[in-house]
Amino acid sequence: IKLEGTVVKFEWVNPHSWIHIMAPDPKEGGKVVEWKVEGGAPSALLRRGWNRNSLPPGTKIIVSAFRARDGAPRASAAEISFPDGQTLSLGNPQNEAAIAAAKLAD
Question: Is the pTM of this model over 0.90?
Answer without folding.
Answer: no
